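User: I'll paste a sequence; please echo it back and then give the predicted structure.

Assistant: Echoing your sequence first, then the prediction.
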Amino acid sequence: MKTVHVKDAIGMILGHDMTEIIPGERKGVAFRKGHIIKEEDIPKLLNIGKENVYVMEFSEDDVHEDEAAIRMAKAAAGPGIEITGPKEGKATLVAEYRGLLKVDVDALLDMNSTDEIMFASLGGNIVVEKGEAVAGTRVIPLVVKDWQVKKAERICGGPSPVIQVKPFRKLKAGVVTTGNEVYYGRIKDKFGPVVRGKFEELDCSVIKQIFSKDDPQMIAESIRELIDSGADIITVTGGMSVDPDDVTPLGIKMAGADILSYGAPTLPGAMFLLSYIGEIPVLGLPGCVMYSKRTIMDLLLPRIVAGERVERRDIVKLGQGGYCRNCVDCRYPNCGFGKS
């Protein structure tokens, strides 16, 4: 460090904290170490009795923490992300709108494997709200070398953004509710309102609900009717277990669906079925969706509504984090369910 008169210190980096004392009012830090001195700071520095200050000397290939944070944040940010800061050396990435948060975990790992670089985010594939902070980045020391920041920027230059928010589409959903007990009016349908609520959470609408007997042909015809009615996504509720009357998977297959996965490494949700008829997702929902607060449906539906085609591998990867704790006061998504 070297001593410089405050009037000559504009643009230089303060080498230590500056304390301001106002008798009877406060004593605290007026300027922190690492602050880049600006012209408007000069009167205040003089007022607290600082005509000379210690400033840090650095070479041309040194990058201040504020600049480094902004550069890394800009490199990592994709659609749906705005940047705030830097504040105390940290840049924050904020969701511009409600949607599905996507995180390139491999790029994140590479960035955090670079010396003196850190980048932290929320878990991916969750619903985030407009204005919600989803990630933050900074360097560890006050100053780093330019090559370190450039390396982080190169890592962010992959085929997809490191951090992005995908907007939700307003899908039209169709629901097939199976079960002789509901079809014949022996019991009241409790599945439909729950499924309808799940879609409404994501600003989607249920355009039609059809009740079907435990008959695979009737289930198949109901699915085709919903497609003809303009449904973008179809859920078939009930009949997903192993009892003789549980024929929903067969009915989905008879409708012409390509079944990618029957069964999932999640609890609740082990008997979930994922299939497609062309580009239309057809989901077989087990009974747990009706009575459990959060299930596999909550993990996958936002991805589908955001325009992703969910594949079998996406379901297989849910095993780690796929066990719900069934907390008395559900905190989802602020918990480990669905996070890997």
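The longest helix spans residues 216-228. The chain has eleven helices and 20 strands.
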